[in-house]
Amino acid sequence: MLLPATGNSDCMATKIPAEKCGKCQCGTLHSKSILYQILNKEQGSETKWHQQHCSPHCSARRKCCPCLDRRVVLRTPEATCRRASEVLLKTSTFIRNLPSFYHMPWEDQFVLIQQNWAPLFVLGMAQEGVDFDLREVPATSLLKKILLNQSSTAMNELDSSSAGASFTEVQKMKNLLWKFWDLDISAKEYAYLKGIILFNSECCVLKCLPYVQLLQQEAQKALMEFISTMLHGSLSRFASILQLIASLRDIDAAAIEELFFRPILGEATLNVLLLETLYNKPDWL
Length: 285
What we know:
By secondary structure, this protein is mainly alpha-helical. Helices cover 58% and strands 6% of the residues. It contains 13 helices and 5 strands. It is globular, with a radius of gyration of 23 Å. The model is unreliable at 1-23, 42-64, 157-161 and 281-285 (pLDDT under 50).
């Protein structure tokens, strides 16, 4: 299961005045000691970046909290990566069985795969009921780096070698999976949803954009008619499902690669490998 935010430091609130403590987003108090100021100075550029690029829901007065940078990996990577690979193979099989997809130029096929494989994969995870447990990766101590007098190059290499996916992105994906499961979506609905996602008319660089727009409209119409027939004209379910599709496009593809495929693919690019599976089944599946 997802681990709770760690951190037990209360800044010795009974001994340190409140004005000398700073409270981070997770509620942890940090003493503004000399050591704290040194560490904060080292993290200054990272804090400024977070304040400039955080979501609109983040207040400008929030401090950069280490909890936001938590990294996680699969608790049972062997079993989960195998299931994830099976989902990827089924996704490619779905695409392979769509003649309309192969009527498009190769360049358009590549663009659609590149931009839509991540939401298609998450949708496949939802259809196959793939849930997964996580464990947290211990963060490299900045204090340890300073005390060991490591060079900036060595520090950067150590940071780049840190394993794991973003906790925030993975949690977003897990929440979305549960929303799909709560709706109890049928196999036909999943098929229509995959068509809506694959034929993404927002890809403006497509050579045959009108054709893709038509295919997406047909998939949406088929989904609406199916829901209307099965649920006696109710459109609330259709609206809820379309809202989930919009959320699917916010899933971070890099987090998916890091969590489910980095242990078995190394540095390989997943969208290229998925294109290969449309014609041949690779050895890694």
